[in-house]
Amino acid sequence: MKHLILASGSPRRKELLETAHLPFTIQKSSVHENISEEYSPAEVVEQLSLRKAKDVAKSNPDDAVVLGSDTVVVYDGKILGKPTDDQDAFETLQMLSGNTHHVYTGVAIVSGDEEICFHEATEVTFWNLTSEEIKDYVSTGESMDKAGSYGIQGLGSTLVKKIHGDYFSVVGLPLSRTVRELKKFGITKEAKSVTE
User: Fold this and answer.
1) What is residue 85's DSSP assignment?
2) Does residue 190 belong to any structural domain of this protein?
3) Residue 189 falls within a domain, yes or no?
4) For residue 131, what are the contacts with CB-CB under 8 A and spacing of at least 6?
5) Which CATH number is 150's domain given?
6) 95 lies in some domain
7) Facing residues of 154 across strands?
8) Residue 25: strand pairing partners
């Protein structure tokens, strides 16, 4: 079977691939995540995913299958990155409070000359949050390495009123579609032996 490489150091993406029982190794990409402001959010996540996958693919055999991914949070047409500090996280969450934003996650799969690139967009609506609720959340430290300053798979789930779209895409990888696309490259879940 072909070998799958995850071109990401994200613990969330690692956990999701493990959930799907896919055998893989991790080789973090070293590409810079700077991209032209002329790109739409969908183009940004697809381009960055492809850059990451190609960066790792070039140092591996042609038959390796490399998975790159990137997630951005968008509100009012603006891409929100990871917060620089607690104050930045607080201001971002205050802006998202009571409003709907979009989470775009891009996925690129590269193997030799073959490549697939796609994205998923999910709507996320927050409750109206008090300053105290936001401060309490930011004080947990969960905001700091997350685009949009929250993690939906953690305590950040309590900020979310509803979502429309793929939950796992908000976590960091649209798992169901990714698994289906990986099958085209010969990557399937590990067979688990059943013992009496």
Assistant:
1) S
2) no
3) no
4) 94
5) 3.90.950.10
6) yes
7) none
8) 5
Q: What counts of helices (H) and strands (E) characterise the chain?
A: 6, 7
- Does 145 qualify as catalytic in the annotation? no
Tokens of 133: 């609720």
Catalytic residue (one of 63, 70, 88, 145): 70
The whole-angstrom separation of Cα 102 and Cα 170 is 9
Task: Name the 3-class secondary structure at 64.
Answer: coil
What token pair was written down for 144?
């700091």
pTM, rounded to two decimals: 0.91
How far apart are the two ends of the chain, measured CA to CA in Å?
Answer: 27
Q: Is 40 within a domain? A: yes
- As for how many domains the chain has, the answer is 1
- What's the domain range around 157? 4-183
Rounded distance between C-alpha atoms, residue 63 and residue 166, angstroms? 30
- How far is it, in rounded angstroms, from Cα 174 to Cα 166? 7
Shortest CA distance to 71 belongs to which of 156, 166, 157?
166
Burial class (CB in 10 A: 0-12, 13-18, 19+), 107: buried
pLDDT one-digit tens code per residue, 137-161: 999 999 998 989 999 999 999 999 9
Tokens coding 78: 């603006």
CA dihedral 4, 115, 61, 180 (to 10 degrees): 20
Give the pLDDT confidence of 55-90 residue by residue, as tens digits.
Answer: 999 999 989 999 999 999 999 999 998 899 999 999
One-letter amino acid identity for 11? Answer: P
